[in-house]
Amino acid sequence: MQRRAFLAALLAGASLPGATWADANNPSFLAAAREGDGGYTLFGLDDRGHDLFRIALPGRGHAATAHPTAPEAVAFARRPGDFALVIDCMRGTISHRLTTPKGRHFYGHGAFIAGGRVLVTTENDIASGQGLLGLWARDDGYARIGEITSGGIGPHEVLALPGDVLAVANGGIRTHPDHGRDKLNLDTMRPNLSYLTAEGALLEQVTLPAALHHASIRHIAWDAGVLAFAMQWQGALPDAVPLLGLHQRGAPPVLCTAPEAEQLAMQGYAGSVAIAGETVGITSPRGGRVHLFDRNGAFQQSHLRADVCGLAAGTAGLVATDGLGGILAVRDRLKPLSHATRAWDNHLVPVG
Amino acid sequence: MKSLIAAVAVCVATTAHADLPHVLDDHIRPAIANFANASAALHEVAVQDCSAPAVIPAYHQAFDAWLGASHLTFGPIERDGRALAIAFWPDSRGACPKALAQLIADADPVVDDPVEFAEVSVAARGFFGLEHLLYGDSFTAQDYTCRLVIAIAADLERMAGDIATDWADYAQVMTSAGAEDNTTYLAPREVDQTLYTALLTGVEFTKDQRLGRPLGTFDRPRPTRAEARRSERSLRNVVLSLTALRNLARAMADAPIPASEAAFDAAFDTAAALDDPIFAGVSNPTGRLRVEILQQKVAYVRDALAAEIGGGMGLSQGFNSADGD
Fold first, then answer.
1. Could you tell me which chain B residue has the CA closest to the CA of A329?
2. Is the pTM higher than 0.90?
């Protein structure tokens, strides 16, 4: 079968039979952590931040991606990593190991489309520096089935929106594995937010004014028609540049800032973004802050918490995790839900 | 037998917590009180005589006092972005002179209302706003600039006073870490982590910013980027900040920290011999090498503190803040 036809067949396929997240105790979130003994672990957490399962990882990862229905997570090696692990969260085992094709490496995030039959991963075409989305067929043992352009350089987070539209945060920063995480194009970087079809058609692209070309768009969240994008400033600091943008398809983006001193205190860095109901939040582990905005972009509140980074929507509002082992409900204040001797890694990943 | 005693001492050290009562009583409370007093004195002097020669000695004393506390970047100093409103540096876009020029050009009456002035851009406020006014070529104690000097001094006094007030409560928050109703510190270990992060971040700020910015690159040294060079405080700020950080390290540790002490001594010796208060020497190879050596000595301080304090308490720098993605 032609690759394109195969992909089309997959995208049109029926939903999956088999085990569900209920078979892994219905976690609300996945989060990776470094434990007290120095080992790395993937945790399944309930809505109140309590452990449901723990699965040892071979090393520090970046984000995990949760399958929409099956109790399965994909954990990515830290960039510029060339492998990802598919973890069976019911059995606590590694069921597949994904390795990038020659000349590619992962950027650390992924998303499922086609009812969970296709995994999409953000990748770098090392030779050209162009961003790619790799496509993998879950039913075929996560075989590599193709790739499409990401619409920019340095794609970081990808989200699957309704209708299998892919939203991609193209961070704009060119890296090369020979130079580790060195940023090779800071003078000319031009990040964007791209909306694509799974076949690679560019539906819409959002760029920021030239004065903000150092604002690397890296993490995204979506809820009910609003896409929130979080940025990391690559220019000189201190600078009260916006770190959050809100976008609705077809409209110009709305850039959001806190009052000057609060904005400066974020240290030009947003680590995660999430939307829960009327509230949009970003975290800055460097500034030790959670900033909250409303869905129109108006600043609401700042909460202080050292090394806070993970952020996701729970059933009752936003939930944050930090490097001190805390899980906190984000309300009109931070309300600790649980605490353990471990350091929660960058992201808190919602399940389902 | 001696080696057995040493081994026992090491074991005890690895489970240690920071000596919080010592840190609060001998380091934080005196530093915060000193800053509040010096800022109040600065305001008082400015009200009496706003001319540069009259204000400058009090400016230096208050700035000295700030360097005793500026590394305590958690809690009250972190609140409302106060740290940058007190000392807005580095200022890579030249925002401070721009903001001041705008106020002066407009003769903005905001200077006469302390509540309103607290909302003025942080770039125009604090010690660097004052420095530009007191050391600017065009500074004359004209009516408006005089009111602006007084307003900045009053604003500093207000912030320093608020910080001192807030610390009274915040010390209790630190002391009660891990208590049921303590939502700031969920465990005593988080206090250790906070102090340790402040300690290392302070040393790194001096290494990377206070020394790193004027050093620039070998091909392009940037002497005009030295901190507070107009008031010739660049080296003084390095020394005073290291002095405060050494005090914090000593107060935190419940065991001797000989490697850190030696590293601090070496850095102070190098600084004392430098004879270059504003790092102007970075523009020539010999002078540059001397500032680079000082930077290296500060890097050794960092490494020694990481080994003795961090290693002793099983702490490392922020998991996410030190390594983003």
1. B183
2. yes
